[in-house]
Design brief:
There is one protein chain. The chain is an alpha/beta fold. The protein is built from 24 helices and 12 strands. It is elongated, with a radius of gyration of 28 Å.
Length: 618
Protein backbone atom coordinates (compact mmCIF):
# COMPACT_ATOMS: atom_id res chain seq x y z
CA UNK A 1 0.00 0.00 0.00
CA UNK A 2 1.63 3.20 -1.11
CA UNK A 3 1.68 6.49 0.76
CA UNK A 4 -0.66 9.25 -0.24
CA UNK A 5 1.17 12.50 -0.72
CA UNK A 6 4.62 13.54 -1.84
CA UNK A 7 6.39 16.65 -0.70
CA UNK A 8 8.19 18.33 -3.57
CA UNK A 9 9.29 21.93 -3.40
CA UNK A 10 9.15 22.66 -7.12
CA UNK A 11 6.79 21.33 -9.78
CA UNK A 12 5.52 22.18 -13.20
CA UNK A 13 3.15 25.19 -13.03
CA UNK A 14 -0.06 23.14 -13.09
CA UNK A 15 1.26 20.93 -10.30
CA UNK A 16 2.28 23.95 -8.25
CA UNK A 17 -1.26 25.29 -8.43
CA UNK A 18 -2.69 21.88 -7.59
CA UNK A 19 -0.46 21.53 -4.55
CA UNK A 20 -1.17 25.02 -3.26
CA UNK A 21 -4.90 24.45 -3.38
CA UNK A 22 -5.09 20.80 -2.32
CA UNK A 23 -5.48 21.55 1.38
CA UNK A 24 -8.37 23.90 0.57
CA UNK A 25 -9.96 21.25 -1.65
CA UNK A 26 -10.10 18.97 1.39
CA UNK A 27 -12.58 21.43 2.91
CA UNK A 28 -14.94 21.59 -0.07
CA UNK A 29 -17.02 18.48 0.79
CA UNK A 30 -17.40 19.72 4.37
CA UNK A 31 -18.56 23.12 3.20
CA UNK A 32 -20.98 21.52 0.73
CA UNK A 33 -22.53 19.33 3.44
CA UNK A 34 -22.91 22.22 5.87
CA UNK A 35 -24.54 24.40 3.20
CA UNK A 36 -26.94 21.60 2.22
CA UNK A 37 -28.05 20.46 5.69
CA UNK A 38 -30.70 23.18 6.25
CA UNK A 39 -32.50 22.01 3.09
CA UNK A 40 -32.33 18.26 3.67
CA UNK A 41 -34.69 16.04 5.73
CA UNK A 42 -33.47 15.08 9.21
CA UNK A 43 -32.95 11.43 8.20
CA UNK A 44 -30.62 12.31 5.34
CA UNK A 45 -28.68 14.74 7.51
CA UNK A 46 -28.31 12.01 10.15
CA UNK A 47 -26.98 9.70 7.46
CA UNK A 48 -24.47 12.35 6.37
CA UNK A 49 -23.41 12.82 9.99
CA UNK A 50 -22.74 9.10 10.22
CA UNK A 51 -20.61 9.40 7.08
CA UNK A 52 -18.58 12.19 8.73
CA UNK A 53 -18.10 10.21 11.94
CA UNK A 54 -17.05 7.10 10.04
CA UNK A 55 -14.69 9.12 7.84
CA UNK A 56 -12.83 10.52 10.84
CA UNK A 57 -12.29 7.09 12.32
CA UNK A 58 -11.30 5.75 8.88
CA UNK A 59 -8.85 8.63 8.46
CA UNK A 60 -6.93 7.32 11.46
CA UNK A 61 -6.76 3.88 9.83
CA UNK A 62 -5.61 5.40 6.52
CA UNK A 63 -2.70 7.01 8.38
CA UNK A 64 -1.89 3.84 10.32
CA UNK A 65 -2.42 1.19 7.66
CA UNK A 66 -2.20 2.92 4.30
CA UNK A 67 0.57 5.38 5.09
CA UNK A 68 2.54 3.52 7.75
CA UNK A 69 1.79 -0.06 6.70
CA UNK A 70 0.47 -1.36 10.06
CA UNK A 71 -2.81 -3.26 9.87
CA UNK A 72 -5.19 -2.83 12.79
CA UNK A 73 -8.62 -4.30 13.51
CA UNK A 74 -9.04 -2.31 16.70
CA UNK A 75 -10.04 1.15 15.48
CA UNK A 76 -13.63 0.76 16.67
CA UNK A 77 -12.38 -0.01 20.19
CA UNK A 78 -10.77 3.43 20.43
CA UNK A 79 -13.94 4.94 19.01
CA UNK A 80 -15.79 3.24 21.87
CA UNK A 81 -13.24 4.51 24.38
CA UNK A 82 -13.98 8.08 23.35
CA UNK A 83 -17.73 7.55 23.30
CA UNK A 84 -17.92 5.82 26.68
CA UNK A 85 -15.61 8.29 28.41
CA UNK A 86 -17.74 11.16 27.10
CA UNK A 87 -21.00 9.45 28.05
CA UNK A 88 -19.86 8.40 31.53
CA UNK A 89 -18.50 11.81 32.48
CA UNK A 90 -21.38 13.72 30.90
CA UNK A 91 -24.04 11.56 32.55
CA UNK A 92 -22.21 12.08 35.86
CA UNK A 93 -23.54 8.90 37.48
CA UNK A 94 -20.94 7.09 39.59
CA UNK A 95 -18.16 9.53 38.78
CA UNK A 96 -15.57 9.52 41.62
CA UNK A 97 -15.01 12.68 43.64
CA UNK A 98 -11.63 13.30 42.02
CA UNK A 99 -13.33 13.64 38.64
CA UNK A 100 -16.38 15.52 39.91
CA UNK A 101 -15.29 18.85 38.32
CA UNK A 102 -15.53 17.13 34.91
CA UNK A 103 -18.97 15.60 35.50
CA UNK A 104 -21.86 16.96 33.47
CA UNK A 105 -19.74 18.81 30.90
CA UNK A 106 -19.39 17.28 27.40
CA UNK A 107 -16.63 19.76 26.57
CA UNK A 108 -14.54 18.77 29.58
CA UNK A 109 -15.20 15.12 28.72
CA UNK A 110 -13.41 15.56 25.39
CA UNK A 111 -9.88 16.28 26.75
CA UNK A 112 -10.45 13.61 29.41
CA UNK A 113 -11.29 11.07 26.69
CA UNK A 114 -8.27 12.11 24.63
CA UNK A 115 -5.92 11.81 27.62
CA UNK A 116 -7.31 8.39 28.55
CA UNK A 117 -7.01 7.20 24.95
CA UNK A 118 -3.47 8.58 24.77
CA UNK A 119 -2.48 6.57 27.84
CA UNK A 120 -4.20 3.33 26.82
CA UNK A 121 -3.08 3.54 23.18
CA UNK A 122 0.47 4.26 24.34
CA UNK A 123 0.56 1.13 26.49
CA UNK A 124 -1.14 -1.06 23.87
CA UNK A 125 1.14 0.33 21.19
CA UNK A 126 4.29 -0.46 23.15
CA UNK A 127 3.04 -4.02 23.63
CA UNK A 128 1.69 -4.54 20.11
CA UNK A 129 3.95 -2.65 17.72
CA UNK A 130 6.98 -4.80 18.48
CA UNK A 131 5.11 -7.58 16.67
CA UNK A 132 5.50 -7.99 12.94
CA UNK A 133 3.92 -9.89 10.08
CA UNK A 134 0.55 -11.45 10.82
CA UNK A 135 1.18 -11.23 14.58
CA UNK A 136 0.52 -7.48 14.55
CA UNK A 137 -3.11 -7.62 13.28
CA UNK A 138 -3.73 -10.64 15.53
CA UNK A 139 -2.50 -8.57 18.47
CA UNK A 140 -4.92 -5.75 17.61
CA UNK A 141 -7.78 -8.26 17.48
CA UNK A 142 -6.94 -9.41 21.02
CA UNK A 143 -7.09 -6.01 22.68
CA UNK A 144 -10.05 -4.93 20.51
CA UNK A 145 -12.05 -7.86 21.88
CA UNK A 146 -10.86 -7.11 25.41
CA UNK A 147 -12.01 -3.48 25.27
CA UNK A 148 -15.32 -4.45 23.68
CA UNK A 149 -16.15 -6.93 26.43
CA UNK A 150 -14.97 -4.42 29.03
CA UNK A 151 -17.54 -1.89 27.77
CA UNK A 152 -20.32 -4.43 28.20
CA UNK A 153 -19.15 -5.79 31.55
CA UNK A 154 -18.51 -2.74 33.74
CA UNK A 155 -21.63 -1.77 35.67
CA UNK A 156 -20.80 1.99 35.78
CA UNK A 157 -20.94 1.89 31.98
CA UNK A 158 -24.41 0.39 31.99
CA UNK A 159 -23.40 -3.13 30.91
CA UNK A 160 -24.87 -4.18 27.58
CA UNK A 161 -27.71 -1.71 28.06
CA UNK A 162 -25.31 1.21 27.81
CA UNK A 163 -25.66 4.79 29.01
CA UNK A 164 -28.77 6.74 28.04
CA UNK A 165 -30.20 10.20 28.48
CA UNK A 166 -27.13 12.25 27.68
CA UNK A 167 -27.71 16.00 27.51
CA UNK A 168 -27.39 17.75 24.17
CA UNK A 169 -24.16 19.47 23.30
CA UNK A 170 -24.23 23.22 23.81
CA UNK A 171 -22.13 26.02 22.35
CA UNK A 172 -22.88 29.10 24.42
CA UNK A 173 -26.64 29.53 24.19
CA UNK A 174 -26.92 27.28 21.13
CA UNK A 175 -28.22 23.77 21.86
CA UNK A 176 -27.19 21.18 19.28
CA UNK A 177 -30.12 18.82 19.67
CA UNK A 178 -31.00 18.36 15.99
CA UNK A 179 -29.08 16.52 13.23
CA UNK A 180 -28.69 19.74 11.22
CA UNK A 181 -27.02 21.39 14.20
CA UNK A 182 -24.75 18.44 15.06
CA UNK A 183 -23.55 18.45 11.46
CA UNK A 184 -21.54 21.59 12.24
CA UNK A 185 -19.10 20.13 14.82
CA UNK A 186 -18.93 16.75 13.04
CA UNK A 187 -18.00 18.05 9.60
CA UNK A 188 -15.90 20.92 10.94
CA UNK A 189 -13.86 18.43 12.98
CA UNK A 190 -13.47 16.15 9.96
CA UNK A 191 -12.33 19.05 7.78
CA UNK A 192 -9.80 20.14 10.38
CA UNK A 193 -8.50 16.58 10.76
CA UNK A 194 -8.05 16.19 6.99
CA UNK A 195 -6.16 19.47 6.64
CA UNK A 196 -3.88 18.71 9.61
CA UNK A 197 -3.22 15.22 8.23
CA UNK A 198 -2.40 16.71 4.83
CA UNK A 199 0.06 19.12 6.43
CA UNK A 200 1.60 16.34 8.50
CA UNK A 201 2.31 14.12 5.51
CA UNK A 202 3.89 17.05 3.68
CA UNK A 203 6.74 17.31 6.18
CA UNK A 204 9.82 15.72 7.72
CA UNK A 205 7.57 13.80 10.12
CA UNK A 206 5.36 12.68 7.24
CA UNK A 207 8.35 11.24 5.38
CA UNK A 208 9.31 9.29 8.50
CA UNK A 209 5.75 7.97 8.82
CA UNK A 210 5.67 6.85 5.19
CA UNK A 211 9.09 5.24 5.51
CA UNK A 212 7.53 2.69 7.90
CA UNK A 213 5.62 1.16 4.99
CA UNK A 214 8.17 -1.29 3.63
CA UNK A 215 11.32 0.64 4.48
CA UNK A 216 11.92 0.30 8.21
CA UNK A 217 15.51 -1.00 7.97
CA UNK A 218 16.41 1.77 5.56
CA UNK A 219 14.62 4.41 7.65
CA UNK A 220 16.50 3.44 10.80
CA UNK A 221 19.78 3.63 8.91
CA UNK A 222 18.80 7.18 7.92
CA UNK A 223 18.23 8.10 11.56
CA UNK A 224 14.47 7.62 11.89
CA UNK A 225 13.49 6.31 15.37
CA UNK A 226 11.29 3.56 14.01
CA UNK A 227 9.52 2.41 17.18
CA UNK A 228 8.85 5.99 18.26
CA UNK A 229 7.40 6.89 14.87
CA UNK A 230 5.28 3.73 14.82
CA UNK A 231 3.93 4.58 18.26
CA UNK A 232 3.21 8.14 17.11
CA UNK A 233 1.16 6.85 14.18
CA UNK A 234 -0.69 4.38 16.39
CA UNK A 235 -1.58 6.98 19.00
CA UNK A 236 -2.60 9.54 16.38
CA UNK A 237 -4.91 7.01 14.77
CA UNK A 238 -6.43 6.21 18.16
CA UNK A 239 -6.98 9.90 18.97
CA UNK A 240 -8.84 10.44 15.71
CA UNK A 241 -11.09 7.49 16.52
CA UNK A 242 -11.57 8.82 20.07
CA UNK A 243 -12.67 12.22 18.75
CA UNK A 244 -15.11 10.49 16.42
CA UNK A 245 -16.43 8.48 19.38
CA UNK A 246 -16.96 11.65 21.44
CA UNK A 247 -18.92 13.22 18.59
CA UNK A 248 -20.89 9.98 18.17
CA UNK A 249 -21.93 10.03 21.83
CA UNK A 250 -22.98 13.68 21.57
CA UNK A 251 -24.89 13.04 18.35
CA UNK A 252 -26.68 9.87 19.54
CA UNK A 253 -26.96 10.97 23.22
CA UNK A 254 -26.73 7.27 23.99
CA UNK A 255 -23.97 4.65 23.85
CA UNK A 256 -23.93 0.85 24.04
CA UNK A 257 -21.19 -1.72 23.25
CA UNK A 258 -22.57 -2.97 19.93
CA UNK A 259 -21.15 -0.21 17.63
CA UNK A 260 -17.63 -0.80 19.00
CA UNK A 261 -17.26 -4.53 18.42
CA UNK A 262 -14.57 -6.32 16.44
CA UNK A 263 -17.03 -6.44 13.55
CA UNK A 264 -17.25 -2.66 13.65
CA UNK A 265 -13.47 -2.50 13.51
CA UNK A 266 -13.53 -4.67 10.40
CA UNK A 267 -16.12 -2.30 8.91
CA UNK A 268 -13.70 0.61 9.37
CA UNK A 269 -11.02 -1.41 7.60
CA UNK A 270 -13.52 -2.11 4.79
CA UNK A 271 -14.10 1.63 4.44
CA UNK A 272 -10.39 2.30 4.20
CA UNK A 273 -9.82 -0.47 1.64
CA UNK A 274 -12.80 0.46 -0.52
CA UNK A 275 -12.03 4.16 -0.49
CA UNK A 276 -8.29 3.82 -0.95
CA UNK A 277 -6.25 3.02 2.13
CA UNK A 278 -3.23 4.94 0.84
CA UNK A 279 -5.06 8.23 0.25
CA UNK A 280 -6.53 10.83 2.59
CA UNK A 281 -9.52 11.29 0.32
CA UNK A 282 -10.04 7.53 0.52
CA UNK A 283 -11.25 7.89 4.11
CA UNK A 284 -14.15 10.07 3.00
CA UNK A 285 -14.83 8.06 -0.16
CA UNK A 286 -14.88 4.75 1.69
CA UNK A 287 -17.01 6.03 4.57
CA UNK A 288 -19.51 7.51 2.12
CA UNK A 289 -19.74 4.34 0.02
CA UNK A 290 -20.08 1.92 2.93
CA UNK A 291 -22.50 4.03 5.00
CA UNK A 292 -24.85 4.88 2.14
CA UNK A 293 -24.62 1.42 0.56
CA UNK A 294 -25.38 -0.28 3.87
CA UNK A 295 -28.47 1.85 4.37
CA UNK A 296 -29.64 1.07 0.83
CA UNK A 297 -28.88 -2.66 1.03
CA UNK A 298 -30.56 -3.07 4.42
CA UNK A 299 -33.79 -1.87 2.82
CA UNK A 300 -33.44 -3.44 -0.63
CA UNK A 301 -31.99 -6.91 0.00
CA UNK A 302 -34.75 -8.18 2.38
CA UNK A 303 -37.34 -7.13 -0.20
CA UNK A 304 -35.42 -8.92 -2.96
CA UNK A 305 -34.82 -12.10 -0.94
CA UNK A 306 -38.13 -12.11 0.90
CA UNK A 307 -36.61 -12.36 4.36
CA UNK A 308 -34.49 -10.35 6.75
CA UNK A 309 -30.81 -10.91 7.49
CA UNK A 310 -27.37 -9.36 7.52
CA UNK A 311 -26.95 -9.80 3.78
CA UNK A 312 -25.11 -6.52 3.29
CA UNK A 313 -22.04 -8.02 5.00
CA UNK A 314 -21.93 -10.69 2.28
CA UNK A 315 -22.15 -8.03 -0.43
CA UNK A 316 -19.34 -6.00 1.14
CA UNK A 317 -17.15 -9.08 1.46
CA UNK A 318 -17.60 -9.90 -2.23
CA UNK A 319 -17.03 -6.26 -3.12
CA UNK A 320 -13.72 -6.23 -1.25
CA UNK A 321 -12.54 -9.36 -3.10
CA UNK A 322 -13.44 -7.87 -6.49
CA UNK A 323 -11.86 -4.55 -5.60
CA UNK A 324 -8.60 -6.13 -4.48
CA UNK A 325 -8.38 -7.74 -7.93
CA UNK A 326 -9.49 -4.81 -10.05
CA UNK A 327 -8.44 -1.76 -8.01
CA UNK A 328 -6.09 -2.71 -5.15
CA UNK A 329 -5.56 0.96 -4.28
CA UNK A 330 -9.28 1.50 -3.79
CA UNK A 331 -11.73 3.76 -5.54
CA UNK A 332 -9.80 6.95 -4.93
CA UNK A 333 -6.55 5.35 -6.00
CA UNK A 334 -8.21 4.18 -9.22
CA UNK A 335 -9.54 7.68 -9.85
CA UNK A 336 -6.07 9.19 -9.33
CA UNK A 337 -4.58 6.69 -11.79
CA UNK A 338 -7.23 7.60 -14.36
CA UNK A 339 -6.57 11.33 -13.94
CA UNK A 340 -2.80 10.84 -14.04
CA UNK A 341 -2.99 8.82 -17.27
CA UNK A 342 -3.66 12.00 -19.25
CA UNK A 343 -0.92 14.03 -17.55
CA UNK A 344 2.63 14.37 -18.76
CA UNK A 345 5.14 12.29 -16.83
CA UNK A 346 8.47 13.60 -15.62
CA UNK A 347 7.60 17.28 -15.43
CA UNK A 348 10.72 19.38 -15.43
CA UNK A 349 11.96 20.34 -12.02
CA UNK A 350 12.45 23.98 -11.18
CA UNK A 351 15.48 25.70 -9.70
CA UNK A 352 16.91 24.87 -6.31
CA UNK A 353 14.63 26.46 -3.67
CA UNK A 354 15.96 29.56 -2.01
CA UNK A 355 16.86 28.48 1.51
CA UNK A 356 19.92 28.80 3.72
CA UNK A 357 22.12 25.68 3.65
CA UNK A 358 21.95 23.25 6.52
CA UNK A 359 24.83 23.21 9.04
CA UNK A 360 27.62 20.77 8.17
CA UNK A 361 29.37 18.45 10.59
CA UNK A 362 33.08 18.94 11.24
CA UNK A 363 34.98 16.46 9.08
CA UNK A 364 37.87 14.41 10.53
CA UNK A 365 41.37 15.52 9.58
CA UNK A 366 42.53 14.04 6.29
CA UNK A 367 44.44 10.82 6.87
CA UNK A 368 43.04 10.31 10.37
CA UNK A 369 41.66 6.87 11.29
CA UNK A 370 37.85 6.98 11.11
CA UNK A 371 36.81 3.32 10.94
CA UNK A 372 38.67 0.39 12.45
CA UNK A 373 37.73 -3.30 12.44
CA UNK A 374 39.57 -5.85 14.58
CA UNK A 375 38.95 -9.61 14.62
CA UNK A 376 35.41 -9.27 13.29
CA UNK A 377 33.61 -12.61 13.24
CA UNK A 378 29.97 -13.36 12.47
CA UNK A 379 28.49 -16.82 12.86
CA UNK A 380 25.00 -17.96 11.89
CA UNK A 381 24.78 -21.28 13.67
CA UNK A 382 27.42 -23.46 12.04
CA UNK A 383 27.98 -21.03 9.15
CA UNK A 384 30.82 -18.55 9.56
CA UNK A 385 30.01 -15.54 7.35
CA UNK A 386 33.00 -13.44 8.51
CA UNK A 387 36.11 -14.73 10.26
CA UNK A 388 38.73 -12.52 11.99
CA UNK A 389 38.39 -9.61 9.56
CA UNK A 390 40.69 -6.61 10.12
CA UNK A 391 40.24 -3.31 8.26
CA UNK A 392 41.23 0.32 8.64
CA UNK A 393 39.69 3.27 6.81
CA UNK A 394 41.10 6.80 6.88
CA UNK A 395 39.51 10.15 6.07
CA UNK A 396 39.95 11.13 2.44
CA UNK A 397 40.43 7.64 0.99
CA UNK A 398 38.36 5.07 -0.86
CA UNK A 399 38.60 1.42 0.19
CA UNK A 400 37.05 -1.30 -1.96
CA UNK A 401 35.97 -4.64 -0.51
CA UNK A 402 35.78 -7.20 -3.30
CA UNK A 403 35.24 -10.92 -3.53
CA UNK A 404 33.06 -13.53 -5.23
CA UNK A 405 29.38 -13.95 -4.36
CA UNK A 406 28.98 -15.41 -0.88
CA UNK A 407 32.30 -14.02 0.35
CA UNK A 408 30.61 -12.22 3.25
CA UNK A 409 30.86 -8.65 1.96
CA UNK A 410 27.26 -7.60 2.66
CA UNK A 411 27.40 -9.28 6.08
CA UNK A 412 30.49 -7.20 6.80
CA UNK A 413 28.65 -4.03 5.71
CA UNK A 414 25.70 -4.85 7.96
CA UNK A 415 28.05 -5.11 10.93
CA UNK A 416 29.89 -1.91 10.05
CA UNK A 417 26.53 -0.07 9.92
CA UNK A 418 25.16 -1.75 13.10
CA UNK A 419 22.32 -3.42 11.22
CA UNK A 420 23.84 -6.69 12.46
CA UNK A 421 25.93 -7.42 15.56
CA UNK A 422 29.21 -9.35 15.34
CA UNK A 423 29.65 -12.61 17.21
CA UNK A 424 33.19 -11.53 18.13
CA UNK A 425 35.55 -8.70 17.42
CA UNK A 426 35.19 -4.95 17.49
CA UNK A 427 34.17 -2.08 15.22
CA UNK A 428 35.41 1.39 16.19
CA UNK A 429 34.09 4.56 14.56
CA UNK A 430 35.89 7.84 15.23
CA UNK A 431 37.67 6.22 18.16
CA UNK A 432 34.57 4.75 19.84
CA UNK A 433 33.40 1.16 19.87
CA UNK A 434 30.02 0.96 18.13
CA UNK A 435 29.25 -2.71 18.82
CA UNK A 436 25.69 -2.79 20.15
CA UNK A 437 24.78 0.63 18.77
CA UNK A 438 21.56 1.09 16.84
CA UNK A 439 21.79 2.07 13.16
CA UNK A 440 20.14 5.36 14.09
CA UNK A 441 22.80 6.21 16.66
CA UNK A 442 25.54 5.40 14.17
CA UNK A 443 23.86 7.54 11.49
CA UNK A 444 23.74 10.41 13.96
CA UNK A 445 27.47 9.95 14.60
CA UNK A 446 28.21 10.34 10.89
CA UNK A 447 28.10 7.00 9.04
CA UNK A 448 25.69 6.61 6.14
CA UNK A 449 25.15 3.75 3.70
CA UNK A 450 23.41 2.37 0.64
CA UNK A 451 22.13 -1.20 0.24
CA UNK A 452 22.94 -4.14 -2.02
CA UNK A 453 19.25 -4.50 -2.85
CA UNK A 454 17.91 -1.01 -3.42
CA UNK A 455 15.72 0.18 -0.55
CA UNK A 456 13.54 3.16 -1.38
CA UNK A 457 9.91 4.22 -1.14
CA UNK A 458 8.58 3.72 -4.68
CA UNK A 459 5.36 5.70 -4.20
CA UNK A 460 7.17 8.82 -2.97
CA UNK A 461 8.87 11.37 -5.17
CA UNK A 462 12.59 11.14 -5.85
CA UNK A 463 13.05 14.38 -3.89
CA UNK A 464 11.21 13.06 -0.84
CA UNK A 465 13.23 9.84 -0.87
CA UNK A 466 16.45 11.81 -0.80
CA UNK A 467 15.16 14.25 1.84
CA UNK A 468 14.60 11.30 4.15
CA UNK A 469 18.38 11.08 4.40
CA UNK A 470 18.40 14.51 6.07
CA UNK A 471 15.98 13.41 8.80
CA UNK A 472 18.53 13.89 11.58
CA UNK A 473 19.36 17.36 10.31
CA UNK A 474 15.87 18.62 11.15
CA UNK A 475 13.94 18.82 14.41
CA UNK A 476 10.30 19.64 13.59
CA UNK A 477 7.92 17.13 15.14
CA UNK A 478 4.30 16.15 14.70
CA UNK A 479 2.66 19.25 16.14
CA UNK A 480 4.85 21.77 14.31
CA UNK A 481 4.37 19.86 11.07
CA UNK A 482 0.59 19.62 11.38
CA UNK A 483 0.29 23.33 12.21
CA UNK A 484 2.58 24.32 9.32
CA UNK A 485 5.18 25.85 11.66
CA UNK A 486 8.01 23.89 10.02
CA UNK A 487 8.11 25.60 6.61
CA UNK A 488 11.49 27.30 7.01
CA UNK A 489 13.17 24.08 8.13
CA UNK A 490 11.34 22.05 5.50
CA UNK A 491 12.57 24.35 2.75
CA UNK A 492 16.16 23.86 3.92
CA UNK A 493 15.80 20.07 4.05
CA UNK A 494 14.31 19.89 0.57
CA UNK A 495 16.85 22.33 -0.81
CA UNK A 496 19.62 20.09 0.53
CA UNK A 497 17.94 17.06 -1.05
CA UNK A 498 17.75 18.86 -4.38
CA UNK A 499 21.42 19.82 -4.21
CA UNK A 500 22.40 16.18 -3.63
CA UNK A 501 20.20 15.08 -6.52
CA UNK A 502 21.99 17.57 -8.75
CA UNK A 503 25.33 16.13 -7.59
CA UNK A 504 24.41 12.63 -8.77
CA UNK A 505 22.75 13.85 -11.96
CA UNK A 506 19.10 13.21 -11.03
CA UNK A 507 17.99 16.80 -10.48
CA UNK A 508 15.71 16.76 -13.53
CA UNK A 509 13.85 13.73 -12.13
CA UNK A 510 13.18 15.17 -8.67
CA UNK A 511 9.39 15.13 -9.04
CA UNK A 512 9.01 11.64 -10.52
CA UNK A 513 7.98 8.72 -8.37
CA UNK A 514 11.07 6.84 -7.25
CA UNK A 515 9.59 3.53 -8.35
CA UNK A 516 9.51 4.72 -11.97
CA UNK A 517 13.31 5.08 -12.17
CA UNK A 518 15.61 2.53 -13.79
CA UNK A 519 17.71 0.40 -11.45
CA UNK A 520 20.86 2.42 -12.08
CA UNK A 521 19.05 5.66 -11.32
CA UNK A 522 17.66 4.15 -8.13
CA UNK A 523 21.20 3.37 -7.00
CA UNK A 524 22.21 6.96 -7.66
CA UNK A 525 19.16 8.06 -5.67
CA UNK A 526 20.39 5.97 -2.73
CA UNK A 527 23.78 7.66 -2.92
CA UNK A 528 22.13 11.09 -2.93
CA UNK A 529 20.03 10.07 0.09
CA UNK A 530 23.12 8.88 1.97
CA UNK A 531 24.97 12.13 1.16
CA UNK A 532 21.99 14.11 2.42
CA UNK A 533 22.83 12.86 5.92
CA UNK A 534 26.17 14.77 5.76
CA UNK A 535 28.28 11.71 6.68
CA UNK A 536 31.99 11.49 7.42
CA UNK A 537 32.06 7.82 6.31
CA UNK A 538 30.03 6.51 3.39
CA UNK A 539 29.37 2.79 2.82
CA UNK A 540 28.33 1.98 -0.75
CA UNK A 541 27.09 -1.55 -1.49
CA UNK A 542 27.49 -2.24 -5.24
CA UNK A 543 26.89 1.39 -6.29
CA UNK A 544 27.82 0.82 -9.96
CA UNK A 545 25.50 -2.16 -10.50
CA UNK A 546 23.03 -1.36 -13.27
CA UNK A 547 24.79 1.83 -14.36
CA UNK A 548 25.74 2.53 -17.97
CA UNK A 549 29.31 3.47 -18.87
CA UNK A 550 28.71 7.21 -18.78
CA UNK A 551 26.88 6.90 -15.47
CA UNK A 552 29.80 4.93 -14.02
CA UNK A 553 32.20 7.62 -15.16
CA UNK A 554 30.04 10.29 -13.54
CA UNK A 555 29.88 8.23 -10.34
CA UNK A 556 33.65 7.87 -10.32
CA UNK A 557 34.01 11.64 -10.68
CA UNK A 558 31.60 12.16 -7.78
CA UNK A 559 33.50 9.74 -5.54
CA UNK A 560 36.75 11.46 -6.43
CA UNK A 561 35.23 14.80 -5.38
CA UNK A 562 34.00 13.29 -2.12
CA UNK A 563 37.46 11.93 -1.43
CA UNK A 564 38.84 15.39 -2.09
CA UNK A 565 36.41 16.81 0.47
CA UNK A 566 37.85 14.48 3.11
CA UNK A 567 35.05 11.90 3.08
CA UNK A 568 36.00 8.26 3.69
CA UNK A 569 34.30 5.83 1.30
CA UNK A 570 34.07 2.05 1.63
CA UNK A 571 32.49 0.28 -1.31
CA UNK A 572 31.62 -3.26 -2.30
CA UNK A 573 31.70 -3.70 -6.05
CA UNK A 574 31.99 -6.41 -8.70
CA UNK A 575 33.04 -4.18 -11.60
CA UNK A 576 36.82 -4.53 -11.46
CA UNK A 577 37.51 -1.86 -14.09
CA UNK A 578 35.51 0.62 -12.05
CA UNK A 579 37.22 -0.37 -8.80
CA UNK A 580 40.84 -0.60 -9.89
CA UNK A 581 40.88 2.79 -11.58
CA UNK A 582 39.29 4.58 -8.65
CA UNK A 583 40.16 3.30 -5.18
CA UNK A 584 43.20 3.80 -2.97
CA UNK A 585 43.20 0.32 -1.45
CA UNK A 586 41.49 -3.00 -2.10
CA UNK A 587 40.58 -5.70 0.44
CA UNK A 588 39.78 -9.10 -1.06
CA UNK A 589 37.48 -11.51 0.78
CA UNK A 590 36.94 -15.20 0.10
CA UNK A 591 34.66 -17.45 2.18
CA UNK A 592 34.34 -14.77 4.86
CA UNK A 593 38.07 -14.15 5.32
CA UNK A 594 40.20 -11.27 4.12
CA UNK A 595 43.01 -12.84 2.10
CA UNK A 596 44.74 -9.73 0.69
CA UNK A 597 44.72 -5.97 1.21
CA UNK A 598 46.74 -3.31 -0.59
CA UNK A 599 46.92 -0.89 -3.52
CA UNK A 600 44.98 -1.97 -6.63
CA UNK A 601 48.07 -2.71 -8.72
CA UNK A 602 49.54 -5.03 -6.08
CA UNK A 603 46.23 -6.78 -5.44
CA UNK A 604 45.73 -7.53 -9.14
CA UNK A 605 49.11 -9.31 -9.26
CA UNK A 606 48.76 -11.20 -5.99
CA UNK A 607 48.76 -15.00 -6.55
CA UNK A 608 45.95 -15.64 -4.06
CA UNK A 609 43.73 -13.12 -5.84
CA UNK A 610 44.53 -14.50 -9.26
CA UNK A 611 43.64 -17.96 -8.05
CA UNK A 612 40.59 -17.17 -5.95
CA UNK A 613 38.84 -14.31 -7.67
CA UNK A 614 40.23 -12.30 -10.55
CA UNK A 615 41.27 -15.16 -12.80
CA UNK A 616 44.69 -16.37 -13.84
CA UNK A 617 44.69 -14.33 -17.05
CA UNK A 618 44.98 -11.17 -14.96
Amino acid sequence: MSAVLSSPVTRAPWRQRLRARSALWLLLPMAAVLLATPWLPAFQVTLLNHVGLAAMSTLGLVLLTGVCGMTSFGQAAFLGLGAYTAAWLTAGSGVPAALAPLAGSPWLALPAALLLTLAIAGVLGLLTLRLSGHYLPLGTICWALALYYLFGTLEPLGGHTGITGLPALRIGGWTLDQPQEMAVPIWAALGLALVLAHHLLDSRTGRALRALNGGQAMAESMGVPVLQVKLTAFVLSALLACTSGWLYAMEQRFVSPAPFSLGAGIDVLFMALLGGVGHLWGALAGATLVTLARDFLQDWLPRLLGQGGNYEAIVFGLLIIVLMHKAPEGLWGRLRQHRASGAADGAAAGPVPSAPPLPRRAMPARGSLVLQVRGLTRRFGGLVANRDVDLEVRAGEILAVIGPNGAGKSTLFNQLSCVDRPTAGEVRFLGRSVVGWSPRRLAEAGLSRTFQHVKLLPGMSVLDNVALGAHLRGSAGLLRSALRLDRAEEARLLAEARRQLDRVGLGALAQQEAGSLALGQQRLLEIARALCADPSVLLLDEPAAGLRLQEKQALAELLNRLRGEGLAVVLVEHDMDFVMSLVDRVAVMVFGEKIVEGPPAEVQRHPKVLEAYLGAEL
